[in-house]
Specification:
This protein is an alpha+beta fold and 489 residues long. The protein has 7 helices and 29 strands. Strands 3-4-11-5-10-9 form a 6-stranded mixed beta barrel. Strands 17-16-22-23 form a 4-stranded antiparallel beta sheet, covered by helices on one side. Strand 24 and strand 25 form a beta hairpin. The chain starts with a helix and ends in a 5-residue tail after the last strand. GO terms for molecular function: aspartic-type endopeptidase activity. Keywords: Signal.
Length: 489
């Protein structure tokens, strides 16, 4: 009996020892797993190449003929739905009234891309200047260096009676200005210049006024008698004239009295043969700031899918239900529109890019820039992912800064990878297929429509080509920018 008890005790002890060993093994494995997780979390965070959550197409079928310019204007009826809505036309397209008839001037692709590069550098210089310790210091190379390079224009009325003016859209310039009579320098405009003497509502701004003093942070002012004169020094060129007010009209029933603008008299630069610039920036003297109370501090635009179609610029209006938003970065020293870009997808997959490249550079939304300019590491990784999915098509030599180029001669249509950008707030913006590639200038050389910055630290600029067909909503009251598809149709 005692022997049986002894055996029973020994068996129980062996079982306990086994359980204890198993528990220790489990604890050891758990510790190893925890250590592995801690090691992985200490590595730089890189966005993995994985499928995105949105259900965007992985490829687009692109009709190659759509890459070529047309000389016939295809107008959309959408812009006539509201009194505060204007048609947006491509500056060099057939829908622009200054390009109708003989003698229309269209610069070469090389010249347009060079101007676009200079514009991007000017915006980046301005953004860097806004981060300095003196927020009101004028940025000599940034306030308007890109003048004449805007790609889109609207036609509005100025004065009483209204004199039609075709103005370039610009979300980076601080002041709207128009070429006036008398004109002493660079009088290249094809359309009639604004004549203050023919407007009964025109007034010069007084030198002692708060309006005249407010421009000191944007440029230089001087007085001639009691009249406020302004001057911007832009690299080796200057823009100067009289600060004035007059009645601005979108349509006959919708007018803006006492609109503040620069009445230019000596402007060095071609203006791209437009009448001037319409400022849509966050500056206190921009059009958007001047009419904020009337239109709920909100405006939107849709840039057309081609140079031969039209879009719209709308002040106020309803926000589309399909709109998705990203916050405008809280930088009161800057009049541009900075946002946080967080990633890029090609062919429906996030490309592996260290998030620090986006954080260090930042991003500015600018419809006046022709193409998007990206940090070098972001651009090169995106381009390689695009090339990996385009092996069915013949490569060709690059063009200037564009190296991802193909020969589409003989093709009626091609399949290209989709491209989308990710922004703070969970927004994924799928670039319309019309904004992914660009013909330079023929189908023998069709290139990826993006450019690389000179340095990784320079701001990315999300440009007009990649904004095409979207209703882009600048909801300044809520501090956000939204995007809704199908904005031009």
């Amino acid at each position: 009996m005692n022997c049986q008890k002894t055996k029973l005790i020994r068996d129980k002890f062996s079982m306990a020892t086994l359980i204890s060993s198993t528990s220790l093994s489990s604890l050891f494995l758990s510790a190893l797993l925890l250590l592995l997780l801690l090691c992985l979390s200490s590595k730089p965070h890189v966005v993995e190449a994985k499928k995105t959550e949105e259900t965007f197409p992985q490829t687009h079928t692109l009709e190659v003929a759509s890459l070529l310019a047309s000389d016939v204007c295809n107008r959309s009826p959408k812009v006539s739905n509201q009194d505060s809505s204007l048609q947006v036309v491509h500056n060099y397209g057939p829908c622009n009234p200054r390009n109708q008839g003989k003698g229309a001037h269209v610069p070469s692709h090389g010249k347009m891309l060079l101007q676009d590069k200079l514009r991007a550098k000017a915006i980046q210089a301005k953004a860097k200047g806004s981060k300095s310790s003196s927020p009101t210091a004028p940025v000599q190379s940034g306030t308007g260096l890109g003048i004449g390079t805007g790609m889109y224009a609207v036609t509005m009325g100025l004065g009483t009676p209204a004199q039609e003016q075709t103005l370039l859209l610009d979300a980076t310039n601080d002041l709207s200005w128009i070429q006036c009579e008398p004109c002493s320098t660079s009088c290249h405009q094809k359309l009639p210049r604004f004549n203050p003497a023919k407007s009964s509502s025109y007034k010069n701004v007084s030198c002692s006024s708060a309006t005249c003093k407010s421009i000191n942070g944007l440029g230089q002012t001087s007085c001639s008698g009691t009249t406020c004169h302004y001057e911007y020094q832009l690299s080796s060129k200057s823009l100067s004239g009289v600060l004035a007010t007059d009645t601005l009209s979108f349509t006959k029933p919708d007018t803006i009295p006492n609109f503040i603008f620069g009445c230019g008299q000596k402007n060095e630069g071609p203006f791209a043969r437009a009448s001037g610039v319409l400022s849509l920036s966050r500056s206190s003297l921009s059009l958007t700031s001047q009419i904020a109370g009337k239109y709920e501090n909100r405006f939107s635009h849709c840039l057309p899918s081609s140079s031969s179609s039209v879009g719209h610029l709308t002040f106020g209006g309803k926000i589309p239900k399909t709109a998705k938003f990203t916050p405008i970065k809280n930088d009161t020293r800057s009049s541009v529109y900075p946002v946080d870009m967080t990633g890029v997808s090609v062919g429906g997959r996030l490309v592996p890019i260290d998030e620090s490249f986006f954080e260090d550079a930042g991003c500015i939304v600018d419809p006046g820039t022709l193409i998007s300019h990206l940090p070098p590491a972001v651009y090169s990784t995106m381009a390689r992912a695009f090339e990996d999915l385009m092996t069915d098509y013949p490569r060709t030599d690059g063009y200037e800064d564009f190296q991802t180029c193909y020969d589409f001669t003989g093709y009626d249509s091609v399949k290209i990878p989709s491209i989308s950008f990710h922004f703070n707030g969970g927004l994924e913006l799928a670039v319309d297929k019309s904004g992914i590639m660009i013909a330079l200038p023929s189908l023998k050389k069709v290139c990826l429509a993006f450019a690389s910055n000179f340095e990784d630290g320079n701001e990315a600029i999300f440009g007009g080509s990649q904004l095409r067909t979207y209703d882009v909503i600048y909801d300044l009251a809520e501090g956000r920018i939204g995007f809704a598809p199908g904005g031009c149709s």
